[in-house]
């Protein structure tokens, strides 16, 4: 009865959400691409590849962050078992764009089928994987049910349950428990996540705490750093001057970092600012905020590859794809966005790896085990509210020695915590 009710409600919800999907297609041309994948229907060339007899592991990732974890795991599985191939499924168009960079010549990239019985059956008839691996915690009950009914081992890796989701999982343990207990094994990011999975009805014997795989995902980008350094030099950004970066900023945080910049200039007049917004489609609003604050704006997506020399207080608006890690490698101090106004935080491992003095706001719930590790090692600073976050940023520019030491501790802390991915890959391969 519960499966009938779930499928009935799922169908209604999907119909109600269809206008949202259509609007997203209009705004993001890539989202409409391969829309039939959601119904388990694939182009002929994809069907032919999936039917070529190559054994593949199905790895599912929602969007950009999960794709990075999935790609790292695929690389490690392939390293430990050469020749292994994958079906990589994603949910979003932004995830697709990143996933295209991670698949190998024998891999197949698809959009995840809708969690509806007919769609799932069609997908699995087209490819019957060696195993099914879910990254983070996007549980699709019909997929898990059908995969395990076919005797295919299923795993949840880098598993976490957010503060927001935990009460719902606990209340609905009668539903989530049987779903979680169909999984062959779960690899959780932290002891707290393991407890929350158990509270949701999962057998604790199915759970192993491995730490987060995100420490393995981050890698410096020296070629990108070199190219961006040349760009900044051409624009008149002195390489000897400190660089403040607003990374993955969300609405409201751009004005915040501009305010910090204005105050910091009083003590460090050579300071320069780069803002990398989380959503590039809102870059126009960020540009308005920069100009309203009284600073010239160099918008990278609209500037030539070798820009003209800019006024000394120009703010660089880096609204281009795939360059954030390069900017972290060049920055002196970084504020990591989505952390100031209750949004859950963006990845703070990347600036820490680069030796950048890193500051985050009070809201980093999406990176709870990461933050616990980094704070314990004194590897970054976290503000308790907006004024405290501003004070911590300004304090770094007033204490150069502390700034340098913070960056060194950050790099060391990240390097010490690598290694979860090889352990998880070995455990998965042992079951195949």
Summarize, please.
With 432 residues, the chain is an alpha/beta fold.
Structure description:
- This protein has helices at 2-27, 44-50, 64-80, 93-99, 117-126, 141-149, 166-171, 173-180, 191-199, 214-217, 222-234, 253-265, 283-292, 324-330, 349-353, 368-376, 386-398, 400-416, 420-431; strands at residues 56-60, 85-90, 108-111, 132-135, 154-159, 185-188, 207-209, 243-249, 272-277, 297-299, 315-317, 333-336, 357-360, 381-382.
- With 432 residues, it is of the alpha/beta class.
- The chain folds into two domains: 26-212 and 419-431, 3-Deoxy-D-manno-octulosonic-acid transferase, N-terminal domain (Rossmann fold, 3-Layer(aba) Sandwich), CATH 3.40.50.11720; 222-416, Glycogen Phosphorylase B (Rossmann fold).
- The two termini are 33 Å apart.
- The mean pLDDT is 91.
Shape: globular
Number of strands: 14
Helix amount: 40-55%
Low-confidence stretches: none
The share of residues in extended strands comes to: 5-15%
Strands of the biggest beta sheet: in what spatial order?
A: 3-2-1-4-5-6-7
Mean pLDDT across all residues, rounded?
A: 91
The level-1 CATH class of the largest domain: Alpha Beta
Total number of domains: 2
CATH fold category name of the largest domain: Rossmann fold
In CATH, the homologous superfamily of the largest domain goes by the name 3-Deoxy-D-manno-octulosonic-acid transferase, N-terminal domain
Give me the number of helical elements: 19
What is the CATH-assigned architecture of the largest domain? 3-Layer(aba) Sandwich
The biggest beta sheet reads: 7 strands, parallel
Question: What structural class is derived from the secondary structure elements?
Answer: alpha/beta
State the separation between the terminal residues, measured CA to CA. Answer: 33 Å
The oligomeric state is single chain
